[in-house]
Amino acid sequence: MPKHDIVTSQNSGFFQNLLVQLKLIWRLIGDPRVSLFLKLLPIASLVYLVSPVDLAPGLALPFIGALDDAAIVWIGTSLFLNLCPDHVVQEHLDSLKKVIPATWRDAKPEEEGEIVEVTPRDADENG
User: Fold this and answer.
1) Is residue 58 one of the residues assigned to a domain?
2) For 73-117, how does the pLDDT look when each residue is reduced to its tens digit (9 = 90+)?
3) Residue 76's CB: how many other CB atoms inside 10 A?
4) Mean pLDDT for all residues in the chain
5) Which residue from 47, 96, 55, 50 is spatially nearest to 76, judged by alpha carbons?
């Protein structure tokens, strides 16, 4: 099981999950709590993507060059996300997914027996 379950959400599609992951990486790169050396991983993988140097030049099969580029970017970003501090990643992920962490103790206890009666008003009264 992955350390951070980012890509496998049942309620959203592939492209939405990809967008969340890209936003998460962007936020983590800008976060001062993440080590500068870790921030080099996704940056270096993007530099490799646009550089003319390839690990597998793809002489026989042209798509091999694109596959190694994709693999390097995937490895670089996956390592980055897994090596960043857990609490920092979770904080940004919750923010992106609009999750507000709370416990039952945070909720106000309702007073027992408190009943609020509401009477419906006619639609003709206030127009």
Assistant:
1) yes
2) 899 999 999 999 999 999 999 888 886 766 666 556 555 666 667
3) 21
4) 77
5) 47
